[in-house]
Design brief:
6 helices, 144 residues
Length: 144
Amino acid sequence: MTNIIIIGLLISIIFYEITDISPGGIIVPGLMVLYFNQVDRMIYTVVIAIISYLVVKWASRYFIIFGRRRFVLLIVISLVINFVLQLLLKSFSISMLNVSIIGYTIAGLIANDFYKQGVKKTLPALVIVVGIVELIGIMIQYWG
């Protein structure tokens, strides 16, 4: 487990240095790989990140939001949106959609990069780096 996170960090940094595109933060791909067999959780986390990004982008039209405030706000908004969606899913007894977010800050980290780089750059970068880290993890298991 620790090896995958370290590999994820290294691949994220290398990818950023080569492309100048951050894959949702340097820690995110390594943690996403830990949940690679739970695609619903990965998708749910990215959806929460997109919604958080859109909410903060809308709010920034009316309030001065930048730097650390924006970063913290993205994390807090992602937590609130996750909490509200979990309540809605439970209140409507939707048992087939029993998903949860990966970590508490991962969606906020991804949303922060969405805000800085845009969704069109960050999302493909995240998919590519997660795929590379997963392949390396498979090779380590096979040859390790």
